[in-house]
Structure formats: structure tokens, C-alpha cells
Amino acid sequence: MTVPPPQDLSELAPSVTLSNVEFSVKGDVKTARIKNPIKDEKSLKPTVADLTISEPVTADKIAEKLEIYGGAIVKNFLADEIVDRMWDEISPHFTKRVWNGDFFPQETQRVTATVCKSKTVAEDFMCHPMFREICARFIGKKNSFIMGDELVTAYSEPQHNASSMLSIGPGAKDQPLHRDDITHHNICQYREKYEYGHETAVACAVAHNTTTKANGATRFVPGSHLWDHQRVPKPEEAFYAEMEKGDAFFMLASCFHGGSANTTTDEWRNMSFIFMTQGLLRPEINIFLETPLEYFQSLSVQALKSIGLAVSQPFCGWYRDLEDPLKVVKPEQDNSSDDMGKGFQLVL
Ligand SMILES: O=C(O)CCC(=O)C(=O)O
Ligand SMILES: [Fe+2]
Predict the structure, then answer these.
(1) Which residue of 7, 121, 171, 301 has the fewest C-beta atoms within 10 A of its own C-beta?
(2) What is the domain extent for residue 109?
(3) Where are the alpha helices (DSSP H) in the chain?
């Protein structure tokens, strides 16, 4: 057969969102406008008490708040001794960041893959029974399948998606409001009421010190997990999840949120994050445990991309500090992609 000339295959991918966007490029100015936004101006204004789980804390109560608001605060989730041990195990890994994008401000110090640097994070935080229960409810998958003359039932257990310690320093600007499930191209739909089965990830964040609006507390947009994919959050719709050391903030990945500006001159906002995702969001076969790096280095860039050793835009499959693994496998190649996808200024 004759082989067709190379083309940009991304042009061929179907999209349910792009047809509703009008793009314009004038010189260096690239803008985008949502053509027909879904009419929905409902904004929730919960109080701290509305978002805080009362004692005795149960997974039922956390799930109920997550269904309504997309976020929930649990006081005294981890004991001080555990939070201190996590800090002691992780903080030596703070290094100067190497990524130059603007998703995290320059003043934010990060340690990533904390589950591999701190056994306490892996055992006491990630495997906390209440967090596991919330993950099972929102992102566990259980189904039955026909296999010959049998019906097979199967449970896919949630897995680690990312983990980090984020220390927001004085002078840091707001992180842009975003949904974490953009990683998985989750397309959110307007819903009156939460429907299970669509969530791709769940986060839990624990404070290492008092977090305040001034020092960069995580802010989130209550109820935005029920919004249409293309509704744009306004800054005033955000709630600042202020916390004390050991408190936890649970959040669905379909909820808009971001780290906040640190307007203090001398405080750091230190928090540990675990993000869990559906267990099935991975390839069927794990080829990485049995294959030496040299083998991958002998392959072409295209073969490495097809194997999954390159970032899936916008954010999936990165290495260390939002680096493209392709650059690590083939440092000699200029595959110049700290490429999170193309950015257009939104026009409202
Ligand atoms: O720093 C924060 O409070 C939020 C961080 C965040 O949204 C993220 O890492 O995806
Ligand atoms: Fe996030």
C-alpha cells in the first residue's frame, strides 16, 4: 500500500466542546468566545459551618456535602504527630522549581510524588480509611461483564493520580481557577443534582499550618461541579477554605478551585495534597516495570509518544515537576513541549 504523507492527526479527533467556541487570532492576540453558553447563574454561598463536617465525622456526611458543594472541610483529620512526620519526610525535597509555565506562581515551592518520598503520606494520608471510602464511592468502578457463559463481576479500585506538597510563598499570585479533571478531558454537564458515575478524580488536602485567605488558602467555587463545562467562574464566586493544621479539605475534581495569592510578607501556606483517580485510567499492561530506560532511549520520538512516554495534553503523564517525560528519555531532542495545550484569552 502507499503510505499517506504525515499530517496533524489532532485535527481528526472528535470534540463535543470546540464547536461551541469562536476563535480569533489578530497578530499576537488570540481570543476565544463561548458562542452559546448554557443559561445558569445559580451561585451557592455556603458558610464555613455549611461546609464543615460535624462530629462524629462519617463518610456519609462528607459524601453529602460533596454532592451539594463539591467540597467539604473535616476538622482534625490527621493528628499533629502525623502531619509533622509528613513535613519532616517531605520538606528536605523542596528544590528550586524547574518548570517555567504560569500554572503555579514562581513563589510556590513544590514537592511532587510525595507518596514515593514519605511513607507517612502513602500509609497514613493516602490510605486513610475515610479518604478510601470517599474515593470508592465517587471514583470506584464496579460492573459485571459477559465472558463466555459466565457473568464476571469486577471492582476497579481508585489509584494515585498525583501527590504534592505546595508551599505558597509571600507575593504569589492567584493560581487560575481550574478543574483538575481537565487532565482526563472530563466534559461536565449542567445538572440540578449530583449524579454518580461521571467523576474521574477526588482530592484531599491537609494543612501543615494555618491557612488563610491572606496566605493563600485553597479557594473553590461551591456547586461548580454541577455546572456546564463552558460556564466561566467569577472570582467573587469562590469560597476560601481556611484551615488549621491537621484539617482536611475534600474536593471533587469537577469543581473549580485554585491556590490563592499570598499577600503576606512572611507567611508560607503549606499543604499536602493527594489526588486519586479511577483505577482504570491507565493502560492494560504495565510495561514500565520490566523495561530498562536504554530500551526506550533507542526508540523514535513517535514510538515513545505512542507508548505513552509523552504528556497527554493538557496535564496527564508528566514527570517530576510538570516535565514532559519525552525530554527525560531523549534529552538530546528538542521536543520543546512544556506544552499544556494552546491558550486563548477568554472573551465574555
Ligand atoms: O495550592 C492549592 O491550594 C491548589 C493546588 C491545585 O489546585 C492543584 O495542584 O491542582
Ligand atoms: Fe487543582
Answers:
(1) 7
(2) 48-277
(3) 48-51, 59-69, 80-90, 119-120, 129-139, 293-297, 301-307, 325-329
